User: Fold these one by one.
Assistant:
Number 1:
Amino acid sequence: MRIAIRICFFIAISGLCAAQARPFPGPDVQQIYQRLLPEIEKIPAFDHHAHPGYADDPDVDAMAAPPNASEAMRTRDDNPELVAAAKALFGYPYSDLSAEHSKWLLDKKNELKKQLKGTAYFDSILDKINTESSVANRAMMPDYLDPKRFPWVFFADSFLWPFNNERETARSPDQGVYIPLQKKMLDRWMQQENINKLPPTFAEYLKFISQVLEDNSKRGGIAMKFEVAYFRPTTFSDPSHAQAEQLYQRYVGGGIPTERDYRTFQDFIFRYLVEEGGRLHLPVHIHTAVGIGDYFNLSQSNIMNLESVIRDPRYAATIFVMIHGGYPLEREAIWLAAMKNVYLDSSFGELTQYPAAFKDTLKMWLETFPDKITFGTDCFPYNQVLGSEESYWLGVRSSRTALAAALAEMISENEITEARALELAHAYLHDTAVKLYEGRVH
Ligand SMILES: [Zn+2]
């Protein structure tokens, strides 16, 4: 009798409160997940942040990994998930990655590269993971990537380092690797514009920068990317044009800038580039997460440092994409997406976290600003076994499973319907990012 009353009470309450969210998923959560996952796997993805390319290609990034840098557990070459990646992508017949067995994999890839000429090899990788197209965030584009499926995002940091960089290079072993590569990148942009030394006046330097942006856009560039957090703190002051001009005149002919002078000059150039991004319809991608290298300073590159720039109404016409969503500060980061022109990319979070943890990140984002979050893998030729191919696979697979799990919990907790969940999946995996590029990507 007492049990019967309780059951009736429960039914009455649950009937009345069908739309009220509850704090735990019900026993149906696994079934919902199993239903959602195949639907989510069918959605052709747009990868908003990746560095596709072969391991021996120096243009995969505008910087390079410093020697002997610590690797987080999941991106090490002994991650057993990489066996699954090799099986899915290449039909790998073994269940470990011993030196002897890994040779099979290398031979197989070489054989496929010979068979699939031109752009066909990397196209076939995207086909296997159901990615329609993927950003190629690279120093330059190679002839083995089809620009229709791999739209170019070029690097804009080097304009911040035109002067004598002796002091900058000496700050740490990591800067010793990074800063000379910035100089190299700047030289390449100068070569592109047929100049062999820095312009004599500041006005001409700014004109040169704008010309590179315009030319890169014509050559297929869809956005500019900053990885400035690797090179200096991401707190940007707001110096005047006159201040920056004075500093340019002081150092263009030589001399080592004081750290303060260099930062002030860079702060102006960064803001100039951000503004040009609005004028030229080139979204601005900014690395906003912890980074590789043991000297990467997380507190000085905290995503919230950028708040003074991205909440500045002067840049309302610029679209910002916060690459890596501020990880491990992704909880704060999602509130930056309250700005109409600010979007988050989830790449790297899905590689460095396992799906069980990444699911919670995605769920929190989906519950806050679901229309402002985009999918990316941060694919990169990390090492011999975790190449671009495998990191694409690991990133896509982790993101699709974490997404299905996050949405299944939200459905089971009465937050959203299953139909709405699939709309959110399409938005995150493809639609939201594609809309930012005004028909230039698919
Ligand atoms: Zn990246």
Note: Residues 87 and 93 are 7 Å apart (CA to CA).
Number 2:
Amino acid sequence: MDFRPTDDQQLLRRTVREFAETEIRPHVREWDEQQHFPIELVPKMAALGLMGIQFPEQYGGAAMSAIDYCICLEEIARVDPAVALSLAAHNGLCSAHIGLFGTEEQKQRFLAPLARGERVGAWGLTESTSGSDAAGMRTMAVRAGACWVLNGAKTFTTHGRVAGTMVVMAVTNRAAGSKGVSAFIVERGTPGMTPGKKEDKLGMRASDTSEVIFENCRVPADQLLGEEGQGFVNTMQVLDAGRIGIAAMSVGIAQGAYEAALAYAKERKAFGKTISSFQAIQFKLADAATRIEAARLLTYRAAFLKERGGRTTMESSMAKLYASEIAMRVAEDAVQIHGGYGFVKDYPAEKYFRDVKLMTIGEGTSEIQRLVIARRLLAR
Ligand SMILES: Cc1cc2nc3c(=O)[nH]c(=O)nc-3n(C[C@H](O)[C@H](O)[C@H](O)COP(=O)(O)OP(=O)(O)OC[C@H]3O[C@@H](n4cnc5c(N)ncnc54)[C@H](O)[C@@H]3O)c2cc1C
């Protein structure tokens, strides 16, 4: 076992951090206030390989490892969690689903433009009446000659209004339950596919989230992704890896909140002393730093195991559960350390506090992670 980052990993962290500090940090508040999805960042992120982090070079990707992926998401989330959420949805859901289950032709045609950043990707599983219970989805796809005809609507789709390529899960055989769900690649501009309501969110406000509606949307049969009826099973595998990304984002958010609190604690004076001299504040900082390190190790372990191949269902869920819940604690303590200034927008603490909540909800709530972990433990 070697816990030291390699020289390449250290260089990657420095490079992504510098990018986030110069290209993102100056705009964080404005994008959040205006709910502006910074599409102008996409070519710059693509130049760094961030739009195709783990995909092979032959598909336009940067061929980085699963741990590198964590480092990238951590460093972007440390500065702006909303931008990191975009990268996670684009890389870890839409592109990953095509990368794992697409045919060679589909990878060349759809994955490569995504990985090069020529298109932004979206992934639609959740519906208004089915989130945790995703297999209960209502969107249907019916075969009609050389096409599948999709009808239904997806809710809370990250990039629902800006994506060029979307992976959509739909029921192709209602009687078969979760074995009757299939995945489809749908391109922007396909007649019958329209973005619906844009969500006005508590946090992650610079990330585009909306409904996507399908009305007699005809998708060519060669855009069925993976085998018919395997869409839900494949989704679970996509989420195994996706959850490592959410864990990494949580570590990054916690790191950003902690650093903001530490800097503030060293400056702010009360009773003639800096507040960092009070043991109550020191203990919060010590707990935060310790929790972040533990979450980071759990996250890197899941990524390491993913890199070695095989399923990481339990390890991914443990990393996601722990990292998201400690990130909530760290962000809350960061607000507390800032006192009243933690409650106003002049300081970054309130934004981390708003953004972090999604980490315990997206890609499976904490309750669902506990169910996944318990099922694995009981099956041993
Ligand atoms: C900003 C944002 C971005 C998102 N991006 C995407 C995206 O790109 N693509 C996509 O497909 N989805 C996306 N989602 C959806 C997200 O994955 C779901 O919101 C999440 O899975 C929870 O589903 P739900 O909202 O329907 O909650 P519900 O499933 O209705 O859950 C409500 C509550 O009940 C609990 N609960 C449910 N079932 C159980 C159970 N069996 N045991 C114990 N407790 C249970 C839950 O834990 C939760 O506390 C996004 C959501 C948000 C807010």
Note: The mean pLDDT is 98.
